[in-house]
Specification:
Length: 437
C-alpha cells in the first residue's frame, strides 16, 4: 500500500456552489483540479500520512494534488522552473523601436525622449535575431514592437516585421507579431500596411471611459485622445486579435467607471480577444500614483464585470514569471542593446547585437535568490519567480530583489478556482464530483 501526503503546491479552498458545500483542490504545478464533498475531504485527510489504497487517493495522485511519501517536491519545482525558463519551443522578443511618445500620460514610468531606432540598427538586430532563430529553430516566434509609441517609427517596425515574417515563412516556423500602441496613430493606412507583413495582434492601452482616459492619457498638447482611439479600434473590424490593457488607479474610485467603457465598446461593435486590467504601478520618479496593486478585490470586480458583458478574460491560472528569467525572451533597445527588462537605453544591458552576450553580466542578472519561505512553504511557488524585478529595482535599486506578489496571485488563483468549480457543476451531477475532474 502507498502512503501519500498533501502536495506543498496544493491550494485548498472551501466553496459553496449552488448551495452545496465543497472543497476545491488545485495544484499550482500540475494544474490538477479536483472537487470533493466536505465529508470526502475529511475522509481523505484521515488517510493521508499512513498506508492506504483508495480510489479517491489514486485520482488525487494522478492530478498531482497529493504526492507519494518520499517525493522530493523541491527537486520537482526546480526541474519545473528550468523547463519554463529554458523552453526552446517558443522564441520571443520585444523591440523597443523608440522612446518618443505623442502622449503625456500622468503615470508613465518612462521619460519620453527623442531617441529612436535607425533602419541600420534594426537591420543589425534582425541579422542577430534571425541567426538565433536559425540556430534554435523554435516552433513559434513571437515578437512585439513597443515604445514609447512604436507607430512614431512606423517604417522601421514594418520593415523589421516583414523581414522576420518572410524568414520564418521560409523555415516553416509559425510567426506571430504584434504591436503595443496607444492607438492614436492606428489609422486605416498603417493598419493595412502592417497586414501585408502578416500582423497578428495589437494591444491598445485605455484607462477608462472618455473623461477618465483623457485626464490620465492626454496627448502632448493636453488634448483628449479617447474618441480617436475608439474610432481606430472600430476600423480594425476583427481582422487581427485585439488586446485591451486597461490601467486603473487602485488609490481612487475611478475604476468603478470602467464598466461604462466596456458598455461603450460593446455598443460600438468593438471586439476584444482579451482584456487585461492592470493597476498603475509605482515608478522611480516622483508620482502621485503610490498604491500599486492596492486592494486585490478591485481586479476581481473588474474581471467579473468584463465577463458579465461577454468580454473574454485570461481563463488560465495566474502566473508571475519575470521576462528577465526566460532565456528565450529577448528585449532589444533602440541602439541594439539586449536588456533584461523594459529599462532605459542600455540600462543593465547584458550584451548587444554587435558583440553578443556578455555571460558574466547575464549570470549576475540570473543571480536571484528567493527567501527560504518562498521555496519551502509557499503553495504559489510554481507560479512565481519573485515578482516584478522592475518594481523592486525602482524601490531599492536591486534588480535581483524580491517583490512578493503573493496577495495578488492568491486572489487571482482563488477567482480561477471558483470559475473552475462553477463550470464543473454545470457539466457534472454533484454525486460525480467526488473524483478528479
Amino acid at each position: 500500500m502507498n502512503t501519500y501526503f498533501l502536495s506543498l503546491f496544493t491550494s485548498v479552498m472551501p466553496l459553496s456552489v449552488n448551495g452545496m458545500g465543497v472543497i476545491a483542490l488545485f495544484n499550482t504545478m500540475s494544474k490538477g483540479f479536483c472537487l470533493l464533498t466536505r465529508d470526502e475531504w475529511r475522509r481523505v485527510r484521515e488517510l493521508l500520512g499512513r498506508p492506504a489504497e483508495d480510489q479517491t487517493l489514486s485520482a488525487l495522485h494522478d492530478n498531482g494534488i497529493i504526492a507519494l511519501e518520499g517525493t522530493d517536491e523541491q527537486a520537482a519545482l526546480k526541474l519545473y522552473r528550468e523547463q519554463i525558463i529554458h523552453s526552446s519551443h517558443v522564441l520571443k522578443s520585444r523591440m523597443m523601436v523608440t522612446y518618443a511618445c505623442n502622449f503625456s500620460c500622468l503615470y508613465c514610468y518612462q521619460d519620453s525622449k527623442p531617441l529612436s531606432m535607425s533602419e541600420e540598427t534594426a537591420r543589425k538586430i534582425d541579422s542577430y535575431y534571425l541567426a538565433l532563430i536559425h540556430q534554435k529553430h523554435p516552433r513559434v516566434v513571437m515578437d512585439n514592437y513597443i515604445g514609447g509609441e512604436p507607430l512614431l517609427n512606423f517604417e522601421v517596425v514594418l520593415n523589421s516585421a516583414s523581414r522576420r515574417y518572410h524568414f520564418c515563412l521560409g523555415k516553416e516556423i509559425d510567426y506571430d507579431w504584434g504591436i503595443t500602441t496607444n492607438g492614436l496613430l492606428l489609422d486605416e493606412n498603417r493598419f493595412n500596411r502592417m497586414l501585408t507583413a502578416n500582423l497578428k495582434h495589437i494591444r491598445v492601452s485605455l484607462a477608462g471611459p472618455e473623461k477618465i482616459h483623457d485626464r490620465l492619457r492626454p496627448d502632448k498638447e493636453g488634448k483628449g485622445t479617447y474618441k480617436a482611439i475608439i474610432k481606430n479600434l472600430k476600423n480594425i473590424d476583427q481582422r487581427v486579435k485585439v488586446g485591451i490593457e486597461c490601467q486603473y488607479d487602485a488609490g481612487s474610485e475611478d475604476y468603478r467607471q470602467i464598466p461604462l467603457m466596456l458598455d461603450e465598446m460593446a455598443a460600438g461593435g468593438i471586439r476584444a480577444d482579451e482584456i487585461a486590467f492592470t493597476p498603475i504601478q509605482k515608478r522611480r520618479h516622483e508620482t502621485r500614483f503610490m498604491c500599486g496593486n492596492g486592494d486585490y478585490a478591485i481586479h476581481a470586480w473588474l474581471a467579473a464585470e468584463a465577463v458579465r458583458r461577454g468580454f473574454p478574460m485570461h481563463d488560465g491560472p495566474p502566473g508571475n514569471y519575470c521576462m528577465a528569467d526566460i532565456r528565450n525572451y529577448l528585449i532589444f533597445d533602440v541602439k541594439g542593446n539586449i536588456l533584461p527588462c523594459l529599462l532605459d537605453c542600455g540600462e543593465l544591458a547584458y550584451g548587444d547585437v554587435f558583440k553578443g552576450i556578455d555571460f558574466r553580466k547575464e549570470a549576475k542578472i540570473l543571480n536571484r535568490r528567493a527567501p527560504e519561505k518562498c521555496i519551502a512553504s509557499c503553495e504559489l511557488a510554481p507560479l512565481c519567480t519573485g515578482g516584478c524585478r522592475l518594481q523592486e529595482y525602482y524601490r531599492s535599486g536591486d534588480f535581483n530583489g524580491i517583490d512578493c506578489p503573493y496577495g495578488m496571485l492568491k486572489a487571482s488563483l482563488e477567482a480561477h478556482i471558483n470559475t473552475l468549480a462553477i463550470k464543473a457543476f454545470e457539466q457534472n451531477a454533484p454525486d460525480l464530483l467526488t473524483h478528479a475532474i
